[in-house]
Amino acid sequence: MNDLKILFFLHFPNPFPGAAWTRISFFADYFNRKGHTISIAGVFSFKSFSRAGVGKWNESKIFNTTPIIMATNIFALIFNHVSSFFSSMVLIIYLRPDIVIISVPNGDCALGSYLAAKIFRKKILIDYRDEWEDYIIKRTASEIYKRSYKFLKTLITRCYINSAQVVTVTNAIANSLIDRGVRNVKIIANGADTNVFKPYDKLKTRQRLGFDESDFIILYSGVIGEYYKLDMVVRALQKLINKVQNVKLLLVGGGPDLQGVLNLSEDLGIRNRIFYLGPKSDKIELAEILSAADVGVIPYDANPLWKNSLPAKAFEYFACGLPVVATVYEDSTLGKLIFENKIGLVSDPENVETLADCLERICVDNSFRKDAGKRAVILIKERFDRNKIAEEFLNLIKC
Question: How far apart are CA 30 and CA 25, in angstroms?
Answer without folding.
Answer: 8
